[in-house]
Write a structure and sequence with these properties.
Elements: H1 2-8, H2 10-22, E1 42-46, E2 49-52, E3 57-60, H3 75-88, H4 96-109, E4 113-118, H5 121-136, E5 140-144, E6 164-166, E7 169-171, H6 181-185, E8 187-190, H7 195-203, E9 208-213, H8 225-238, E10 241-245, H9 258-262, E11 268-272, E12 282-287, H10 288-291, H11 300-306, H12 318-333, H13 336-359, E13 364-368, E14 371-375, H14 384-389, H15 393-405, E15 408-409, E16 416-417, H16 424-443
Bound molecules: 4'-deoxy-4'-aminopyridoxal-5'-phosphate.
């Protein structure tokens, strides 16, 4: 690999070496969790394509982990960023862009909805959980095994690479060094789609502030509307708030989120990625009656007892807000974007599944509504922990490496995303690269 990188991408390789001297992980050269088999440093991003420092061009399936649903450098978003910057980038002071963005988000989620803006999905989840604790006066949070909610201590409990205990009643476990034991211990860990989880919520109701979950877990590639509806009923009965983490799925699977497809809504929704139009952003949205717990009473001495404080020097800054609002306006006014993404994702899942079957490669392709993944194992595990146990890391990395050689950039262990900028020709290229890659993987 090293020799090939040196030959095909010498400038990228040189920059990677320089990066290693100055930048600590996550450098995004070496991904979050694994060293990349084939690092990428981008000189230009346009539409569905990335060009590296050495002039190699790739169809991008990473979507920057999610924000770029319109494709890179969409003219409306570029113009909005340029205009906002030219007017003078402002933060920590009121500006019309943040009001426009909040208005668009609130309108997508329902009447009487209001928004708290933040700078990332991680922050949005932190704010939502604090609102839930402040409102209920309870401390504990329930979450689902394998659901990632950003890198806060609470968000990382039993989130990705380490799970513990009985699969039906998991024990909470930290997924990073340096986490606070007390936060881990305060977490109740559940399994998505399991009736047992609902019983455990009811049993712990007196101490639970909220249940936080990815309504469409990225590890699953689909959602369970009946489970989501049962969860809502059990939590309403128990006085436990439901918090949806729609940082990935918000404005991606639908204008709004999974909740608009599932026919059941949470008390609070966390957003990020798309609502920043490619710049750092996050938000919590919910009915005024709930989310107003984060609003000041006007008396800072009284607030310390009753208000869930949420700050952020850059939250609601005018450039991010302008980029986000321009993105949402495009999506709102061109709903055919979503139907086209749905059809193209379905086509790709079917095509790759058929090709893998023809070659006899043990590989599952799953996903919907522009989000999809390829896993190299035979089983169809129900629980995330079983999926992880069967994950072939070597095959996953080799796959990303071969796809790159055929002009397709994958986010390796992350789910893949299509954008509105992907053309039929891009999809054909992905399909062809997939066929060649899996055949080469079989022969080596
Ligand atoms: N929640 C989910 C479901 C996510 O996938 C992510 C990030 N990929 C986050 C929260 C955290 O968002 P951010 O990286 O913007 O902090």
């Amino acid at each position: 690999f090293q020799r090939e990188i040196g030959e095909r991408a010498p400038r990228t390789q040189a920059l990677r070496e320089e990066a290693a001297r100055h930048l600590v992980a996550p450098t995004h050269f070496d991904r979050f969790v694994l060293p990349s088999a084939f690092p990428l440093a981008v000189a230009q991003a346009k539409g569905s394509r990335l060009r590296d420092l050495d002039g190699n061009e790739y169809v991008d399936l990473s979507g920057g982990y999610g924000p770029h649903i319109l494709g890179y450098a969409h003219p409306a978003v570029v113009a909005a960023i340029q205009e906002a910057a030219a007017r003078g980038a402002v933060n920590a002071v009121g500006n019309p862009d943040e009001v426009r963005l909040a208005g668009l988000i609130a309108a997508a989620f329902g009447p009487e909805h209001k928004v708290v803006l933040s700078n990332s999905g991680t922050e949005a989840v932190q704010i939502a959980l604090r609102i839930a604790r402040a409102r209920t006066g309870r401390q504990r949070v329930a979450k689902f095994e394998g659901h990632y909610h950003g890198f806060s201590d609470q968000g990382l409990v039993s989130s990705w690479f380490r799970y513990r205990g009985d699969p039906r009643a998991p024990e909470p476990v930290g997924n990073s060094a340096g986490m606070q034991d007390a936060v881990v211990a305060q977490t109740l860990v559940l399994q998505y789609g399991e009736e047992d989880s609902l019983r455990r919520i009811a049993a712990h109701a007196h101490e639970l502030a909220c249940v936080v979950l990815e309504p469409m877990p990225s590890a699953l590639g689909d959602f369970d509307p009946a489970f989501l509806r049962r969860l809502a009923a059990v939590c309403a009965e128990a006085g436990v708030l439901v918090v949806y983490d729609e940082v990935v799925t918000g404005f991606r699977v639908h204008y709004g989120g999974v909740q608009h497809l599932a026919g059941t809504a949470p008390d609070l929704t966390c957003l990020g990625k798309i609502i920043g139009g490619g710049l750092p952003a996050g938000a919590v949205v919910g009915r005024a009656e709930v989310i107003d717990t984060a609003r000041t009473s006007g008396d800072p001495f009284r607030d310390v007892d009753s208000r869930a404080f949420a700050g952020g020097t850059m939250s609601g800054n005018s450039v991010t807000a302008a980029a986000g609002a321009a993105t949402l306006l495009e999506l709102r006014d061109r709903p055919q974007i979503y139907s086209r993404l749905r059809d193209r994702t379905a086509w790709l899942v079917e095509d790759l599944t058929a090709q893998a079957g023809d070659c006899g490669v043990p590989c599952r392709v799953k996903g919907r509504d522009s989000v999809f993944s390829v896993a190299f194992d035979h089983a169809t595990p129900r629980l995330v922990r079983d999926r992880l146990a069967g994950l072939d890391v070597t095959a996953t990395l080799a796959f990303a490496y071969h796809m790159r050689r055929y002009g397709v950039h994958l986010p390796e262990l992350h789910t893949m995303m299509l954008s509105a900028a992907h053309s039929d020709a891009d999809l054909e290229q992905v399909s062809e690269a997939f066929g060649k890659s899996v055949r080469e993987m079989l022969s080596t």
